[in-house]
Every structure is written in structure tokens, then in C-alpha cells.
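pinging the channel bc i need a second pair of eyes. not urgent but kinda urgent?? the chain im working w is below, pasted from the shared doc
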Amino acid sequence: MKLGIVGSGKIVHDFLTTADKIDNLELIAISTTKRSEQVGKDLALQYGIKHTYTDNSDLYNDPEVDTVYVAVPNSLHFIVAKNALEAGKNVICEKPFVTTVSEAEELKQIADKKGLIIVEAITNIHLENFKHIKKDLEQIEPVHILSLNYTQYSSRYDDFLEGKIAPVFDPKKDGGALNDLNIYNIHLAVGLFKNPKLVKYYPNIQKGIDTSGILNMAYQGIQASLIASKDSYTMPPRSFIEGEKGTIYFDGSPGELNHYTLELRDKEPKKYNFNTHSHRMAAEFDDFAKAIDEHNTELANKWFEHSLNVLKVLAEAKASY
């Protein structure tokens, strides 16, 4: 996979720290805004990226690039992904995928027409611990309660209170706790239990944006409570999957899943960690690089269908308040 990166924000910096651990990944280019041109040049020098651009079209037209990683503010995902696809590039688009189901379907139609692959970059469902948790559900079933908690006091929250609005707190740029943090919880819930029957979101609104909130999702026999907060502190947040025969729980970010505990009735709890990488983003990009190099459309279609189901939940949540 020969990668071109659009964006130079925090997530790009984070990804580049583990890019050299990913098999069959070559960093070809990075495109930034003119304002961030020096940031792009510094990243290129530090991580051995061949080309730097300040016009995305130049990256799209780079013949060495076969895949574009879309890492821009949420509201720009659709147009950047669309332009990359139309230029003949595979696309890896940061979460949340796009704003609407119809946008996702339009991107998929373009990708299919051109024989390209498009996927959403979401860490947790690609982690080995997620796959083992899914399998271990058999030991605690039937499950009745799902409680996922992603509370992370935002480094930009104090600025937000003072009126300095970063994209993650900007309603015009699809910011907010639901899009930024609860999206991880939704991916886990849909990945484990498929589509819910009912969805209702209860947000805390400040300055027109949800700085925290609880998303309730009802399944047949299962009630799910998905908590996300950018305005509160707890250390560490703990998440539970509760069944009649036992409980699975984990601490920390639902986006990292760096361990989990299986506690069966009348037995000692056992803690597990099957993740093979220390960085949460390595597993997903390993999967993407392999699927793109092998042009595994069957696997990419499976991931896309999952992302589409998540978008449907997100749409219901936004429509419910």
C-alpha cells in the first residue's frame, strides 16, 4: 500500500508514530493546508515521507500514491474521500466515516464503479481483543446489559469554555461527544450485537454542541447504555458486558481495548490481552494494507456494511434529540 495522507492534525501525528510497524506500507505523500505547510514538511522529514503538497489535487494526481488516508475535520470527510476516489485512489477515511448514510452509499458506488476499496479507519473492531471478546460472549450468554464508557476530559475543553472553539467542539464541523467519542462505543455495540431496535440520545448541550451524553440502545433482551464525555473526568472509565453466566469488563478507552477481564459466576476473574501491537492504530492499518494489496473486496464490503450500520445508529441518535 502506497499511502498519501490528507491532513496534519493530531491523529496524523499519532498514526505516523506507528507507521513503520505496519507491513507493506510505504509513506509516499502528505498534503496540508498552506497554513500548515511547515508542519507537513517537518513530518515528511521526520518520518521519511517522499512528497509534500499544499493542494490536495497534487496528492490525488501523484502516480506513486495508490491509497489516500483522509484525516481532516469530520465535515470534510465526504468531499476529500470523493475527490480521492474520482482520481482513482483507494480510500481509508477516519471515523466518523461521513455525515449521512446517503453520502456513504454515494462513495461506495464510486468505489465499486472504479474497482477501488473504501474503508473507515476505526481502531477497536480490528483489535485482537475485540475478536476474543466477541468469542467469549458465548461463556456469559445470555447477555442482558451492555455499559460502555468513553470519558476523556478534552485537552480543548478549557479553551472551549473561554470561547475558543476547536473543530471537535464545533457543530458546523460535526464535532461533539457523540461523533468524537461515542462513535467508538457504537462500533463496539454494533460489532458485538448488530443493529438495535431502538436508539435514543440524551446529550448535555453547551454552546450548541454535545459536550457529553448517554446513548441508549435497545436490543431483544439487551439494554445498552453508551456514555461519552469530553467535559468530565474519571480514571479509568470502566465498561461492562453483563450476562447470566458472567461478565466481561475492561478499563480505559473503548478505542484501545488494551485488555479485558472475563469473570464467570463462582470463578476467579481472568485478565487477557491478545493485542499484538502496542499502538491501537497498527492493527487496523495492517488489515487495510493487506486488503488493499490483495484487492480483497469481500472483506472491504464487510467492513463497509458494518460502517453503514453504525451510520444508521448515529443518524437515529442525532434525530432523537
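so The chain has ten helices and 14 strands. and The mean pLDDT is 97. — does that match what u expected or am i reading it wrong
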